[in-house]
Every structure is written in C-alpha cells, then in structure tokens.
Write a structure and sequence with these properties.
The two termini are 15 Å apart. The protein has 2 domains: 69 residues, no CATH class; 237 residues, no CATH class. The strands form 6 sheets. Strands 8-9-10-11 form a 4-stranded mixed beta sheet. The protein has a 4-stranded mixed beta sheet with strand order 12-13-16-19. Strands 14-15-18-17 form a 4-stranded mixed beta sheet. A hairpin with a 2-residue loop joins strand 1 and strand 2. It is α+β, with helices and mostly antiparallel strands. The radius of gyration is 21 Å and the shape is globular. It contains 7 helices and 19 strands. The structure holds zinc ion.
C-alpha cells in the first residue's frame, strides 16, 4: 500500500523521477524513510482516441510492503500513516463544536469511514437551487446534509480535511488500495470506490449512475473525477455567475453519446488557478445537463456533465498512472 513518488534519494542527493536513469544513477531510496524504490519512466497512455502522457515517478517494488520492505510506518508515502494523519486532521472540527461529526473517522481495525453526506454539504453549490442551464429539477437531498456546517470556522476545518483527502486520492499509486483503508458511506449506505472515483475512461459509468438516480428522483453524492483541461484560455462568465472550463471528452468512437465534462468555477481567480493544471481531480456533486442533438450530422448527440467548484479544496493536480 503505497503512493507514487515524484522524487527519490540517491547517495546524498535528491533526484526527480523524470531525470532518473537506473543505469547511470543506480539504486534509489524513498525520500522519507529510505526504503528501496524503482523508477518508472514517462509513457503515453491511450484514452479514447488520443494519448496522454503519464509522467515519470518512483514506486515500491511489487509486494515490497507485504514482504516488510516497504515504507516505514511513519513515512508520509505509507498510505496507512497518511490516512491516520487525515483522520486526526478531520477530528479538528470537534474543537469548534463538540457536536460536529468528523468527515473521516476511524473504524475498528485499520479502516476509516469517509462520510459522503458531510462532503455533499461541503461541496454544495451556494446559494442552493441555482443551476447552470436554468433547468434545475431541484432534487431534494433526501434529508442528508444541511446540518453539519453551522459556522464559517467549522466549514474551514471541514474544507481542510476535504482538501487533504483529495490530494491523497490524487497521489496514491493504486487507487484500489484506498478501498482497503477508506470505506465510503452515504447516509446509511456504503458506496463502492468505483462509484466515487472516476478516471478519464469512466465517464460513461458516471453518466449511467446519474441517469439512474435521476430516474428514481434521488440525489447524487459527491464524486472525485479526473478531467483533462489541456490548454485553454478562460472564457466569459456565464449569466449564472461562473466561469466554465471545458474538459476533454474522451468518448470512444464506438459510443453513441458524447459526455462532455464542464467545470463551473464560481470565482475567476480560482478558475485561473485550475487552468495551471492540464489534468485535475475535481470533487463535486455531479449533475447531467440537457441532452442535445448532434451539433453536426457527423457528430454524436451530447450531454454535459456539470460540476460546480466553489473552493480550492475541491480540486488538485492529477498525475495519471
Ligand atoms: Zn518511505
């Protein structure tokens, strides 16, 4: 259970993953605890009909953690210790209100529970009920949320916890590993990681999930979704007061519907901040826009996957694997 590392230690110096050559530099060690790590070179990955570049990184040898040759318990690249740090940070809300419920809490054994109903409240667009296309059916959030955040100080404490959680999800070597450490809860239900984390290839699954919820008139929970922003300049503010950033639609040629992710950022500075990243991991409550006919006969019908970002805690840069 470990994370990807952008740099490592050589005899007496630090080396970035993209400069590392095994034959020239020899064995590399973890920056923090000194365990042996391997360099992985940059390589292209095919997403839909185009390629993205996976940047070089360091990782643990296979099974190293299991064989006792992995990161030390206190190392920041050890997921177990990173998760305990998150649990401790999350408990900070208790200092502002004894009744506050932490976003993450330790369960018995090694697992931790992430409460998505609290996350819903943190990432909820404010004021409530606004919609980018003026087509808000206003699905009621089924009695969840709207009771955890009672003050600005409490909100800030929650946001700090949400921010660290998102960066952890962003840098873990194998996201399936996270499921062993963090269980997701939404109200009384447990949610699987593949219904929370959506990579570039998974938009169709997210679309199906949202369409089914809409049909049942149920509210969506927050998700973490990878979006390729590429190079784009900031357009005009929408009449609803946000700056739209269009993500690349990685739909395969064989699919009959184009799913176009759009991030509506409620603050211009924040939008510029986000555009510094080519790939972002965004945490938001997703919403489907209206289905539109194909703009040209040779194109497909489209549907917009809408995400609203109010705060910098809702996104981080993402390094694909
Ligand atoms: Zn380490």
């Amino acid at each position: 259970m470990a994370s990807r590392m952008p740099a490592a230690r050589l005899q007496g110096r630090i080396i970035n993953a993209d400069e590392y050559e095994k034959d020239t530099h020899g064995a590399a060690q973890c920056l923090d605890c000194g365990c042996a790590v391997l360099g992985v070179r940059s390589y292209p990955r095919t997403v839909g009909d185009h390629e993205i570049v996976v940047r070089a990184y360091f990782r643990l040898p296979t099974d190293a953690q299991k064989d006792g040759k992995g990161h030390e318990p206190g190392c920041r690249f050890n997921i177990g210790s990173a998760v305990s740090v998150l649990v401790a940070r999350s408990a900070e809300v208790k200092t502002f209100s004894s009744e506050a419920e932490p976003l993450l809490s330790a369960l018995l054994g090694k697992q931790t529970e992430l409460r998505l109903h609290i996350l819903t409240e943190i990432v909820q667009p404010r004021p409530s009920g606004y919609s980018e296309d003026g087509f808000d059916k206003e699905i009621q959030p089924s009695g969840l949320g709207r009771r955890y955040i009672t003050s600005q100080r409490l909100l800030s404490a929650y946001l700090r916890a949400a921010e660290s959680l998102l960066s952890l999800v962003g840098w873990v070597q194998n996201r399936r590993d996270l499921g062993e450490w963090i269980v997701l809860r939404h109200g009384s239900h447990h949610v699987r990681w593949n219904r929370f984390f959506f990579d570039l290839e998974d938009y169709r699954q997210l679309y199906d999930q949202l369409a089914a919820l809409e049909a049942d008139q149920k509210a969506a929970h927050p998700v973490a979704i990878v979006i390729e922003l590429g190079n784009q300049s900031l357009g005009k503010m929408t009449k609803y007061g946000s700056w739209p950033l269009r993500g690349r639609n990685p739909t395969l040629k064989s699919e009959e519907l184009a799913i176009c992710p759009t991030v509506f950022v409620r603050d211009e500075k924040l939008a510029h901040e986000m555009l510094k990243e080519r790939l972002v991991l965004v945490c938001a409550v997703p919403k489907l826009g209206r289905r539109r006919d194909a703009p040209k006969p040779w194109l497909k019908p489209e549907v917009e996957l809408q995400l609203t970002v109010n705060h910098s805690a809702q996104f981080c840069g993402f390094t694909p694997t």
